[in-house]
Amino acid sequence: MNQYQQLYEENRDVLGERGDELKAFLESAAEIDKVFAPETYAVNLRRLKLPVDAAKSFKCAVPAVSTTPALVVNDIFQPSKRLPEGVTFMSLRAAAELHPEWIPASVRDDIKSAESRLNDLLWTDGALIRIGQNVRPERPLQLVNILSAPMDLMVCRRVIIVVESGADAKLLLCDHTQDSEHNYLVNELIEVSVAEGGRLSLDRVEESSPLTVRRSEMHVQVGANARFCSTSSLLTCGDSSSKINVSLDASGAEASVNGMVIASGTQTPAFHTRIRHKADHTLSNQVFKYVADGQSNCTFDGLIIVDESARFTEAYQTNHNLLASNDAKMHTEPTLEIYCDEVKCSHGATTGQLDDTALFYMRSRGIPEAEARRMLMEAFLSDVIANVGIDSLRERLRHLVERRFSALAEGSDSCADCSAINALKQE
Amino acid sequence: MLLDVRGLRASIDGKEILKGINLQVRPGEVHAIMGPNGSGKSTFSEVLAGAPAFTVMDGEAWLNGVNLLELSPENRSHEGLFLSFQYPVEIPGVSMANFMKAAINAKRKYFGQEPLTAAEFLKLMKEKRSVVELDSKLASRSVNEGFSGGEKKRNEIFQMAMLEPKLSILDETDSGLDIDALRVVAEGVNKLHTPQNATIVITHYQRLLDYIKPDFVHVLYKGRIVRTGGPELALELEERGYDWIKNEIDAQEQ
Question: Which of A155, A352, A403, B161 is within CB 3.0–4.6 Å of B131 for a Cys-Cys bond?
Answer without folding.
Answer: B161
